[in-house]
Batch of 2 targets.
Target 1
Amino acid sequence: MKAVMKSETIKAITTHYIDGAFVESHGREVMDIVRPTDGKVIGRVTLGDEEDTRRAIAAAKRALASFGRTSKEERLRYLRQLHKAVSDHVDDLTAVMIEEYGGVAQFARLIVESGVNAFAAAEKGLQELPLTQSWGKTTVTLEPVGVAGLITAWNANALFICLKLASAVAAGCTVVIKPSEMSSLQTRVMVEALNAAELPKGVFNVVTGLGTVVGAEMVRNPDVAKISFTGSVAVGQQIMRDGAATMKRVTLELGGKSPTILLDDAVLDKAIPAALVLAFMNSGQACAAGTRLLVPKRRLDDVKQAIRKTMPAFAVGDPADPKTAVGPMVSQKQYERVESYIRKGIEEGADVLVGGEGRPKGLEAGYFVKPTVFVNVKNDMAIAQEEIFGPVLSVITYDSEDEAIRIANDSKYGLHAAVIGTDLSRARRVASQLRAGRVVINGMTDDPQAPWGGFKYSGVGREYGRYGIEAFLETRAILE
Ligand code: NAD
């Protein structure tokens, strides 16, 4: 198998970005960065500690004094500078996402471009958002909430950093970013890009380190007013609990177990490829992945046939190859997690339609799993209720539209959902009954002005466009 870039030199990252400069880490612990296609060490990152974090928070606090008072026009200019700076690095950011994370080329570029677009979306959102409104003797202003801590997951590093930073800058907040430690090489390329945007020093600071060290300090520190977090439910709950001590504002973007409802008038030649894209996007390591496919019982045989026919288009392999749809899992731990769920599905009595346990042939060196589709799944099985975060799809049958809606909503999650069908008014009617923050009709699509976020355990608050900016604002009324 060809590997991406094949850079055999080990990159060492020993600095954080604090107060507009790259500074040596005070923390001394070193972590290996492992390439998921072959398990080789490709980087060593020196992890930040509480002292690095406090320095970054202090820099953000100093910068807030003037940045928090910038006009809308100034913030729009900074957003344009950020947009240009990151646009100039789309190729480098895509290449490093492929190498460090194993993101497939066809998806990695989309992720990076979505990050670039986040700055443009924030610009539009800010233009449309009245920061001051008055009536009679009352004036209401929207004020930056303060220093914000941005904590991100590893599955779309470039997008999360850009999205959260764009909203914060639009709101006039200064930030400390703690990316996933597993995305350190990607973060370095991103910070170099952001550095070229020439924002005032201290507006954004980046400390790479462990969640339990750097993240925990951000959550605890009284000088941080807000945490915007993307990651697991368990850590999100801990942030909410620990943040209460300093009354943190929180935005939590957490997990999902998203349903795709295939209505009985769906045309399978189009519907099944669309459903499989939803299931296997980002190699299944996507919070929005449509991992429960709800199909009318009477069409099950046709659905099974269509899935078998379509699966060859979802080739697993070298993420650098543009034909690859499913790359490796990010780590050995994630590989084992996905394998354990495939085993659990079999033990629970579901049937493997395609895929199954073990590495695909010829891909023994990396953290590759077989894209797997289970049929005969009941919605109360673990594979239908728990987030696997890998390319594993559960097909569940229903008898009526009402039952499909009930099964779709029978989940502790509510991040994303999809409806596929020919009669659009019917599809819209079904969509309007789903308890999810975003519902797409007839295939994956995006709108950077549309809010993103979860009902139930999928999170608290919304990101993107105007909604994302509002999450970094406080409201003040002055009455004469
Ligand atoms: P994770 O919760 O393990 O880690 C996320 C981040 O939190 C990392 O930067 C980590 O270092 C940090 N962290 C860990 N412990 C912490 C603590 N005690 N205090 C503060 N920070 C801490 O999640 P992950 O494994 O990196 O990502 C996978 C999860 O993210 C999945 O559940 C997925 O659904 C979710 N996710 C959600 C969205 C969304 O938009 N809703 C997007 C992508 C991923």
Target 2
Amino acid sequence: MHDRVSGRPSTHAALAFYDDQHPPAGDFLADVLDGFSRTPKQLTPVYFYDAKGSAIFDEITALPEYYVTRTELGILDQIGSELSALAGPGAVVIEPGSGSSVKIRKLLDALSVPAAYVGLDISGEHLESACQEIAADYPDLQVGAICADFTQGLDLKHLTLESGRRIIFFPGSTIGNFEPEGARELLSGFRKAMRPGDAVLIGADRVKNADRLVAAYDDKAGVTARFNLNLIDRINDELGGTIDASALRHKAIWNAEKARIEMHLIAIRDLHFTVSGREFELREGESIHTENSHKFTPESFTSLAKSVGFDVLQAWSDPADLFTLHWLEPAAKA
Ligand code: AVJ
């Protein structure tokens, strides 16, 4: 089914697909049972993005309050020639968690004759269709897809291309979903897969006015609330859960001490439910903590990058300093 590219005309949309799920990615049931056994209860945001959740996330990116996506796209539009100069010709672009095809297209269009694009994702189906579309639209680009959990390190052994510098593209401030230690591990995993001259282009959302931050995660139209509650629907549908979603209220709070937005689902009455036969209680007012979205200052991001052996060579922000894109390279001396 996943043919290697050999034997096909070069203008044909061809995709090299590798399944590299060792160990297999996320076990939804085990993670939910573990998270519900903790105090406070918590869930991991990786499970937001089933087909329905991904569609709701697309709605979020168009909300007036959610400045993140459009601000990053605006910066990408501004810096194309700088990126092209930094990357040089023949770049190999690697995208862990290949999500928004709009952003990767902006990057590929900005670069001067990129040689290859490789997407990595734990969701093989989504990955394959996204990469197929890129292969179809960029006939001269070599396109690869690696089905793998990139939080376990970037294994690029399948990349046979030696020419051109590798650019790891990690937009969207996805780094913000990780606790500081996890963020360091992730970036350190990128760092280990890199050779001298390779680079990371990474987006980070910035610390700003608390009201503005909270509004971005608690929009008037209730789209983010639907996004949050979709996790409960998934647990009920896929894991035989019996959670009354109508008894849970979406809440976004700014945790200034940890510089993060937290999303919660708060019980409006005592709840008793089961997941796959296991029993759980939630008291009125108790929360299920579903997401952290860490925000950065120029200093906090630079110190994170430095702590794992990167130098920040360039940083680009929008005029209102809402969001920053960074160009990282392995530090000259670690
Ligand atoms: C995809 C992790 C960057 O933290 O802003 C948006 C996810 N959650 N609204 C973010 C999200 C609620 C988003 N990231």
